[in-house]
TrEMBL record:
The active site is at residues 323, 341. PROSITE patterns: LD_TPASE (PS52029), PROKAR_LIPOPROTEIN (PS51257). Residues 239-365 form the L,D-TPase catalytic domain. GO terms for cellular component: extracellular region. This is L,D-TPase catalytic domain-containing protein. Pfam families: Big_10 (PF17964), YkuD (PF03734). The keyword Mitochondrion does not apply.
Length: 394
């Protein structure tokens, strides 16, 4: 009869399966189990209770010992263990992160009461939301690639993140961990993309880990983070190019040492679009062979051109490249005659192309046009204070 009362109590809301790991006393096996269960009156409770369904992934799993103490708690689901913290008095345990939606979990708690071990188990499942947020891309992400010291981190999502509160929740789930610490911050450049930039350049020759611990993060309107994502990028040598548009030349430094002087011919400045931008640029990629076409003009229009170039390296989204220009080698270093690109000799263009890393710094001065902060990767044009103002946590 006692056994029946205990089972009914569990079904009525204790929400955990209680097992005493050792038992003593007279009577039949059934009587002993019933008496111990009644005497225990559930010394350990687990929330969510056993059998719970549609549990919110951003809730907290909690274990409490009403009598006795806890010796250990494990929370597992989806093949992974969820971290938690045991209180100093060992009377309670709380999970320390969100759960994966649509996943079965098992909580196992061990404890001790009156010198006897206790084991309690609860099994529950999290809700499966109709709308989820997931990472579709973390850049840089090319296997074996080394990037420059100015390289930002881009995280793009499968859907828009609506509102400051939701954006802040996403940012709190994102961490950037370099081997050589430096301050940094996120900035939203669209509702579906956020960018991380450091206060000063990365230290060279290190790895940086990016974690998006989005699983179970609640974003409002029924949207939850679907799963965690991670990436590791490797910072290569510190390569900084300093160029003067007025003097038609640039110097490449690697890890603080001058390694090459390169004369160039920059934009002729006859129009804004034909003026090479000053400011801190980042190399965006070595694109090799590129077809250059005059912006906003069609064949037959004054100033129309279509030119094939080799060894091209992009440094803005407004069509600026370094590239080979064998037709004007004689004036490189003495005059600016291009449509906005930096014209280099074939040898210099090829060397720059073959040694470039995405995220290398190209710092140009001497023109009447500053590169816009959102023109390509011109993020270093903003002070760090202004950069941080684009964070939902600012």
């Amino acid at each position: 009869m006692a056994k029946g009362r205990f089972n009914a109590a569990v079904g009525a809301g204790v929400g955990a399966v209680l097992v005493l790991a050792s038992a003593c006393g007279g009577g039949s096996e059934g009587t002993a189990k019933g008496r111990l269960a009644a005497e225990s009156s559930s010394p350990v409770t687990i929330t969510p209770g056993d059998g719970a369904t549609a549990v919110k992934p951003d809730g907290t799993v909690e274990v409490k010992a009403s009598s006795g103490t806890l010796t250990g708690v494990t929370l597992q689901g989806g093949g992974a263990t969820v971290a938690g913290e045991l209180a100093a008095d060992r009377k309670s345990w709380r999970s320390s992160r969100t759960l994966v939606p649509g996943t079965d979990y098992t909580v196992t708690a061990q404890g001790e009461r009156s010198g006897k071990p206790i084991a309690v188990t609860s099994r529950f499942s999290t809700l499966k939301p109709s709308k989820t947020l997931r990472v579709v891309d973390i850049t840089p992400n090319r296997t074996g690639e080394k990037v420059g010291v100015g390289m930002p981190v881009f995280v793009r999502f499968n859907r828009a993140v609506a509102g400051q509160e939701a954006k802040a929740a996403v940012e709190r789930a994102l961490t950037v961990t370099p081997e050589k610490p430096v301050e940094g911050a996120w900035r939203w450049i669209g509702d579906d993309q956020v960018v991380y930039r450091t206060k000063t350049y990365w230290a060279p020759h290190q790895k940086v880990r990016v974690d998006a611990r989005l699983a179970g993060v609640g974003l409002g309107n029924g949207v939850y983070g679907a799963k965690d994502s991670a990436a590791t990028m490797e910072i290569g040598a510190e390569r900084i190019t300093k160029g003067s548009i007025a003097r038609h030349e640039m110097t490449v430094y690697q890890d603080g040492k001058k390694i090459r002087h390169i004369p160039f011919s920059a934009g002729n400045g006859s129009t804004r679009e034909y003026t090479t931008t000053s400011g801190v640029h980042l190399l965006m990629g070595s694109e090799g062979h590129v077809t250059m076409v005059s912006p906003g003009r069609k064949p037959g229009d004054p100033g129309y051109y279509k030119t094939e170039v080799d060894w091209a390296v992009r440094f803005s989204n407004s069509g600026e490249y370094t590239h080979s220009a064998p037709w004007n080698v004689g004036i490189q270093g003495s005059a600016n005659t291009s449509h906005g690109c930096l014209n280099l000799s074939p040898a210099n263009a090829r060397w720059y192309h073959e040694t470039a890393q995405r995220g290398d710094v190209l710092d140009l001065t001497g023109s009447t046009r500053q590169v816009e902060w959102d023109n390509g990767w011109g993020f270093w044009q903003l002070s760090f204070a202004k950069w941080k103002a684009g964070s939902a946590l600012s």
